[in-house]
User: Fold these one by one.
Assistant:
Number 1:
Amino acid sequence: MRHVLDITDLNVTEIDELVATAEDMLANSAKYAHILAGKKLATLFYEPSTRTRMSFEAAMLELGGSVISCADMSRSSASKGETIGDTVRVVSNYVDVIAMRHPYEGAAYAAALKSPIPVINAGDGGHSHPTQTLADLLTIHREIGRFDRLTIGLCGDLKYGRTVHSLINAMLRYENVKFVLISPEELKLPAYMLETLDRAHAGYEETSDLESVIGKLDVLYMTRVQKERFDDESEYERVKDCYVLTAEKMKLAKKECAVLHPLPRVNEIAEEVDDDPRAAYFRQTLNGKLMRMALILKLVTEKDSVYIREKTVLGGKCANKKCVTRLEKLAPLYKAEEENGMHRCAYCETLQKLGDRK
Ligand code: NCD
């Protein structure tokens, strides 16, 4: 039994295997059409979603399995005060694997701690979104053909964009990958992600000017400003249209630059770019379904795998008010080693001094 809460829960060999399986699923779909007959997936989505939820459900159906879901989690027992842990314990009696999305950071981890069946994180607040990264990786593989020697520009909301955090964590593991972090000051990467880049000795630069760097990118990853994560609406209004990719700007990009976006898009890519052969974002959605098929198959059929995370008990609640430890009375923070005198919350990864915990 095995969970995928973060992209680093899969090693690079496993990523290669998932990519190969996904490619095979595309070429030989009949071979997989009944492979999970009798198995069930539950989608527990506490937050809006179109493609993630539907692609998880389509993925399970295409493997011959079935799906159960709660149409609206705000009408589930969560509204009566049931904890995430109790909900997954109950649901695990009905299905073989759970895909969960939640607005609180670290929620999937809280679920996994109590779950006897695999939990897949389908997005936890502004923290991480590993299966979107699987979609992004297959897209990079299919559009460019390699994961190393790439310059990747990440543009827009790097603060709250969970897909950005997971993609960086995935790409950090390949040789000679450089990151160009393009955002306004207010939407820069969180401290814990910058610390992660520094620890990996990754090459990166930060800029607010897309046009000055677009010409050197092999991948341009555009993102939506995550309106729902802002406490202050006026701050959102100030930054919401900070970048708009247009056909004019695409003239400055390399001939082989792949443009990705996890979608939904709001204003950040003009529709005129859709006809550019470098625009890969709609192909990316098919890739998402294929990689979710490969992942579900792996988790449901894999035997003898054990899920291990560091467990040094510190206790208390996290300083991040969007952390799941602030929503529920959860067991302690688990500590990784100290980083520049700070501790990393095991649920949401926010770096904090022990005295900052609530
Ligand atoms: C992303 C998400 O939910 O984080 N969407 C998705 O899953 N494809 C990106 C977004 O909502 O902007």
Number 2:
Amino acid sequence: MKIVQKDFRVSTRGRNQMIDITRKVSTVVKESGIADGDAIVYCPHTTAAITINENADPTVPQDILLTLEELIPHSRPGYRHFEGNSDAHCKSSLVGCSEQVLIRDAALKLGSWQAIFFCEFDGPRSRTVVVQVRGQ
Ligand code: ZN
């Protein structure tokens, strides 16, 4: 089994933003030369996340961000973290810092409506995404 790991940068523009990184992940998979296996897409940050959801209709990521904002408000009595970004930490843990995608015939095995999103919860910032491709 072969393992290839590669990082790329993502620049976010808003405090809360979902950015489609499917093409960047796909490029890492193609360059790895691995035809069958899986890819782990990992975000090494405590106020950001990775998720898979629909990008055919851009209102879907907008509605996800709206729902997260309602569930986890930016400021709330009781938050104690000194940086003032407790909401971003909570959203990061709720959404999760990685996703695993299967690879078949050197391509990501995503459903027709699925995309891989980098989720920013404390931007704008420059962020890192790590992709590890495993297989043969
Ligand atoms: Zn913090």
